[in-house]
Design goal:
The strands form two sheets. This protein has a five-stranded antiparallel beta sheet, with no helix packed on it. The chain is globular and about 35 Å long. It is mostly beta strands. It has helices at about 10-15, 70, 100, and strands spanning about 1-5, 25-30, 35-45, 50-60, 60-65, 80-85, 90-95, 110, 115-120.
């Protein structure tokens, strides 16, 4: 996994088109304050080919999570939001302008650090 800096968030989200119409593959608890979310998304840099991308959040301070069995039921038509605000990284399903609003998402994570990894497409 590679660190994802705040200044890189916008570029990565544009590249994967905010995961619009993507699919949530899994949410894995690595330990109580470290979670990995994996999504299947289209990658503009690969001619809109499908890839999987994993985001690892560490130092979790707030979260609303679902069982993997319910992930396929989440509507991804609005994609995802990822923010860096007041020293925290946040992930949520849907479009939000700040972390306070993002906490109304069906699934969200807020943590101290963020890493990511591109993976072969596999849903």
């Amino acid at each position: 996994m590679k660190p994802l800096l705040a200044k890189q968030l916008t570029e990565l989200l544009d590249r994967i088109d905010h995961a619009i119409d993507g699919e949530l593959v899994s949410v894995t608890m690595n330990h109580p304050q470290n979670f990995t979310i994996e999504l299947s998304v289209q990658d503009k840099n690969r001619g809109y080919d499908w890839i999987n991308i994993a985001f690892e959040f560490d130092g979790i301070v707030d979260a609303n999570l679902l069982d993997d069995s319910k992930l396929s039921l989440i509507d991804m038509s609005d994609g995802i939001t990822m923010l860096f605000e007041e020293g925290f990284y946040a992930f949520g399903v849907g479009r939000y302008n700040n972390i306070t609003a993002l906490k109304s998402s069906t699934l969200f994570l807020v943590g101290n650090s963020l890493k990511y990894e591109e993976r072969p497409f596999n849903n």
